[in-house]
Write a structure and sequence with these properties.
By secondary structure, the protein is mainly β. It folds into 3 domains: about 35-115, no CATH class; about 170-220; about 240-430, Jelly Rolls (Sandwich). It is built from 4 helices and 25 strands.
Length: about 425
């Protein structure tokens, strides 16, 4: 007897004596395989009281027994008081009622129906744990989500990168963080191609807190700081934090003074002496007595806001005259690691900006010197100061010559001369 190619449905042959028998057999097979809803797929032996027309997938392991022996993975249907078995073909789908799962036969096993699909394209809506709609065509309601990079062994490159693209600069591409579906924070390219950090108290009024310029990478704090005074003090006074490392500040307050504390140190002529852990002082004169110490900023004749301490350099005896080569100066030594990123001593050297607070008892001119460790490369500048505290700033072009230490040891010397007598060693600003 011949049968159909896919479902093996028997054909009625010409001149067949009992065609109704063949037709009924075909109808039973159709009834078994069409709209294939499976009661269970975990049994390896027939159930005790099967219902008419009910269907099972026979478990292949452990090996089937009883009337199901030899029919592992087959579809078993109870028809007219007996078992009807159908051998699955690749691509058959079945709905397993007790699991609520859609499975498919891949040629060797019944697997999740989606597992045999290699592509799933152009879906209009997809909801995971929730219902998607036209506003949110991809909607997911879960407590955790995991994305894992495809390894090299699996044919990938081991990397994982999210790629999101907007239509034009004026459009928005962002991550929006909500509280009960009301926006509270947003990061991304919001209305231009700069990177923005925005926040909102109510989901409707937004403040652009931080912007990073796409061309220069410079950061703008658009709303300022909660406490500008405290922030400024932290920026310029933090002795050991990462910001001080990156900005090359050297204990901006002179707060750390482990050896001397606040004791006034009597200096030896022409000898650099540590006053605090990061500031040295020195002078040269045959008859003067010069002392230095850590002193509370509030103890100077004019208090300095936002600073707790400063390094005082003071002559305690009157100076009748200055000889050629006499001086008084503050010194800060900056480690090579801190200046390495400037790339000095080679092409492409980056400029350096310096700034410090300086107290002067009279209007005068101070002399600033920046040099490498052996002082073979030097930058000089002169700054006018007035009585009281002075905010002294300047910029040095990147030095493409000489040797600048970029590891441990001295990388850069900063010297501020308060007094001196000598022919200027170079033109100011050179």
């Amino acid at each position: 007897m011949s049968a159909s190619a896919n479902l093996a449905l028997p054909f009625i042959e010409g001149g067949e004596l009992l065609p109704d028998v063949t037709l009924n057999e075909t109808l039973r097979l159709i009834d078994t395989l069409v709209q294939l809803a499976i009661v269970d797929r975990d049994l390896n032996a027939p159930p005790g009281s099967p219902g008419e027309g009910q269907r099972w997938i026979v478990a292949a392991s452990p090996g089937p027994t009883g009337a199901w022996a030899g029919h592992g993975n087959d579809v078993a249907a109870w028809q007219d008081g007996g078992w009807l078995f159908c051998v699955p073909q690749v691509g058959w789908f079945a709905y397993v009622i007790d699991e609520g799962a859609l499975v498919a036969w891949n040629g060797t096993a019944w697997v999740s129906a989606l597992a045999i699909l290699s592509t799933l394209q152009n879906l209009a809506l997809l909801g995971v744990g929730t219902t998607a709609d036209s506003t949110n065509p991809l909607s997911v309601k879960v407590n955790n989500a995991l994305w894992v990079a495809k390894t090299i062994a699996e044919g990938g490159d081991g990397n994982l990168r999210y790629k999101m693209s907007k239509e034009s600069a004026a459009k928005t591409l962002s991550l929006l963080f909500q509280d009960n579906f009301s926006g509270r924070a947003e990061v991304g390219l919001t209305g231009d191609d700069d990177f923005h950090f925005k926040v909102s108290a109510d989901g409707s009024s937004w403040l652009d807190a931080i912007t990073i310029d796409r061309a220069t990478a410079k950061l703008a704090a658009n709303q300022g700081f909660t406490n500008p005074t405290t922030t400024r003090a932290q920026l310029y006074a933090a002795p050991f934090d990462a910001l001080a490392f990156n900005g090359m500040q050297v204990d901006g307050n002179g707060d750390v003074s482990q050896a001397n504390g606040t004791t006034q140190v009597t200096l030896s002529s022409d000898t650099e002496t540590y006053v605090t852990d990061t500031f040295l002082a020195a002078y040269k004169n045959a008859g003067a007595v010069v002392k230095a110490r850590q002193l509370a900023a509030a103890s100077f004749p004019a208090a300095l806001l936002c600073y707790s301490n400063a390094v005082e350099l003071k002559a305690t005896t009157a100076l009748s005259s200055l000889a050629n080569g006499d001086y008084a100066r503050h010194v800060a030594l900056i480690e090579g690691y801190r200046i390495a990123r400037l790339g000095w001593g080679a092409s492409g050297a980056q400029p350096l900006a310096y700034a410090f607070q300086y107290y002067s008892p009279r209007s005068a001119t101070i002399f600033i010197k920046l040099s490498n460790s052996d002082r073979s490369r030097c930058y000089y500048d002169e700054k006018a100061v007035v009585i009281g505290w002075n905010w002294v700033t300047g910029t040095v072009a990147g030095d493409t010559s000489g040797t600048w230490n970029t590891t441990s040891g001295i990388g850069l010397r900063l010297e501020v001369f308060s007094a001196g007598k000598a022919a200027s060693p170079a033109t100011a600003g050179s």
